[in-house]
Design brief:
The protein has one domain. The protein is built from 3 helices and no strands. Helix 1 packs across helix 2. The chain is elongated and about 30 Å long. It starts with a helix and ends with a helix.
Length: about 50
């Protein structure tokens, strides 16, 4: 997941904390809308930190 954090920091100009919060928000949104994908989302983005 560090690669995604680095990409958000570089391309979107986010701080480390902002990038992590953006990922957490996206993860929770996807799981909320598509609960059957929770396992896949956790696998892709890692478990909640």
């Amino acid at each position: 997941m560090q690669e995604l954090i680095d990409k958000l920091k570089t391309e979107a100009g986010l701080t480390d904390e902002q990038a992590k919060q953006a990922i957490a928000t996206i993860k929770s949104f996807v799981v909320e809308k598509f609960p059957m994908l929770e396992g896949a989302v956790s696998s892709i983005f890692g478990a909640d930190e």
